[in-house]
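Why show two proteins at once? Because comparison is the fastest way to build intuition. When a single record is shown, students tend to memorize it. When two are placed side by side, the eye starts asking what differs. So, the first record is below.
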Amino acid sequence: MTYATDESTKQAVEQFRQFDVDTQLALLWFGYLDIKDELLPSGNDNAEVDTANAVYDQILALPKEQQLQAQRDIAGHTNSDISRAYTALHSSGKLELWLRLAQGMESDQIIIVPSDYELPEETNDFVEGVENLDLEQRIDFMRSVVLEMGAKQ
């Protein structure tokens, strides 16, 4: 299931799926940096956000390399405990978790993308296409890609 509603966003989602897991994680990070000032705090105190926070806390408690592996497991559809917990989240919880992970990277609580990391050259056209999307399309894109992640049954 995807939230992408227009052809440009759907195309971006399809392109994103073609990249390896580490590239996908880096693209999520750089995408967050691109739109973070436009994001509104969720303000939700519902059970879904609480559950997403519990998954975040599980990842936070891990050593840095295992934090990275947990994210790889989620993005790579690995059948791990954290990936299964992620799969059980509804869409708002999945978005909340990735937002919390990005904020954790900013505060150096979660392993960060190395400062010397450069996206592979084959992502250039993809990045340019996403940069041309408006804010709503970018958010639809992010929602669509994180919704599909998690353990495959």
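Second record. Ask yourself what differs from the first in the token line.
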Amino acid sequence: MSAPAKAFAPVRLQNVYLVAERPAALHAFYSRALGLSLKFADGERWYQYGVGGGNVSLACREEAAPATAGAVMVFEVADFDGAAERIAAAGGEVLGLRDMGTHGAVLSLRDPEGHVVQLFRRAPAPGAQAQP
């Protein structure tokens, strides 16, 4: 098996999120019980906390990857080039790509045991040339 292309190899664990039925209630719990400081919120759909250089988040079902429950690992990558082929060749399945505009894009996949994992690619900085 060949090594992953440099652009496709994860550069860091970007986020881990829990899919929650009641994200606002869980936000109250995690901020009180663990003292997590809110970094970003999207109404009551998504709560994100900065923890040790990474992120931990709470997501409503609509914000989560398709057919997801429990925890999801999100790896930041520089590019999605060749991702679908590599995932399929390794026995996984691509579930879809979500463009989040100026924030970036997320490629959702399912590993051979059925776990959902996501790859996050940041949007180019304003004025920067996008990579082809």
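One difference worth noting in the second protein: The chain has a mean pLDDT of 83.
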